[in-house]
Design goal:
mainly alpha, Four Helix Bundle (Hemerythrin (Met), subunit A), 237 residues, transcription regulation, three-stranded antiparallel sheet, GntR_C, DNA-binding transcription factor activity
Length: 237
């Protein structure tokens, strides 16, 4: 379960607001009182307050006394927030969001792999190898949900092993993108064997302290992901 996928009314209302935003039912400049939000989404004032706090924290809304809750322009939103990524993956901007994620991963994860090969602890290297082994076991069976969890574990472990707190903070973003790709049937029924092998190679290179190998194998992974998104986008255009 990713950070954008909690439970309860709080999550339910955020999801509905996200849908309203990504489909144009809510727009920048719209203003609502707490009472109007309660009535619109059928929840208590306590839930509304929690939701508004989240919306403010990710730049989607501002709240002022005697004014109300104002929807902010999309340019003010926290683009890397897993909540916003989840909204966009659920809405009509899905393919554009996945392309943007793939482009960003190409700039981030190969460098993270290089750093991990230089800095990973034995425990971090073991976690990477276990996640890659899990992908190798479940991928050929078409067990996509289990494969997804191993894939998320792999990329989280990779980013953490970089020894860079900013790169480690990128993990929820990647997890949300990987989840969205699977949930919306944008993964092949059987993951590409080449992609699985490259994950195994990244883990081995990091365990052996080989930065060049780790970076190159990781670059192959994200380049393949980018190509897949470009192909899907071409079909959808």
């Amino acid at each position: 379960m990713t950070s954008a996928q909690g439970g309860g009314l709080h999550h339910s209302v955020l999801t509905r607001i996200g849908s309203d935003l990504t489909t144009g039912r809510l727009a920048a400049g719209d203003v609502f009182s707490m009472e109007q939000i309660e009535a619109r989404y059928g929840v208590s004032r306590t839930v509304v307050r929690e939701v508004v706090k989240v919306l403010e924290s990710i730049g989607v809304a501002s709240s002022r006394r005697r004014v109300g809750v104002t929807i902010q322009p999309e340019s003010s939103w926290e683009a890397l927030s897993p909540v916003i990524i989840h909204w966009r993956l659920e809405g009509p901007q899905r393919l554009a969001q996945l392309r943007e994620v793939s482009e960003l991963r190409r700039g981030v994860e190969p460098q993270a792999a290089r750093l991990a090969a230089e800095r990973a602890t034995p425990e971090q290297a073991r976690r990477l190898q276990e996640a890659a082994a899990g992908m190798a076991e479940t991928g050929p069976k078409g067990a996509l949900l289990t494969y997804l969890q191993h894939d998320i574990d792999f990329h989280r472990a990779l980013l953490e092993a970089s020894g860079n707190a900013l790169l480690a903070g990128f993990a929820p973003f990647v997890a949300e993108a990987l989840t969205g790709r699977t949930e919306h049937d944008l993964m092949p029924e059987i993951p590409e064997q080449g992609a699985i092998d490259w994950h195994v190679e990244v883990a081995a290179a990091i365990a052996e302290g080989s930065p060049d190998r780790a970076e190159e194998a990781m670059r192959r992974i994200v380049t393949e992901a980018q190509a897949a998104m470009d192909e899907i986008g071409a079909v959808g255009d």
